[in-house]
Amino acid sequence: MRRLDTQTAGKQQRALELRNLGVDYDRIAKELGYSDRSGAWRATKAALDRAVVEPAAEMRILQTSRLDLLTRQALAAVLAGQLDQIPNVLRIEKRRADLWGLDAPKAVEVAGTDGGAIRTDVGEILLERLRQLSEASPPDVLEAGVIETGEGTPA
User: Domain locations in the chain?
Assistant: First the structure.
């Protein structure tokens, strides 16, 4: 693996920034002095490959530290009489609850009258049709039998 000088790393980072802004590879190549679009693409990919993606657990801890700092500042303001900071405290605490999943979703159950099944017009029509079909005289049943072949197996 070759060592990367700061000028090349900076150029690759700039290529990634431009791409994030929606600039196409041809324009990135022209702006940064790459010979063609593939050079701009390789620079962008190199910058992405070097990027460090922090695990979610570490990010939660970092975010929590920031929220703690904001909470201390906002609460100090509220205690000093700046009551207009109360909504900020509540927003910070809401963000903390979202971050850690503290506000569990509330279960909602939909039921019909007296907790029974939900009845609809379409459902009533289907139920009535099923009652009609079950009360109708059964269709004629054909009698069937098994015909033995000479080999002892049914045909």
Answer: 6-50, 56-100
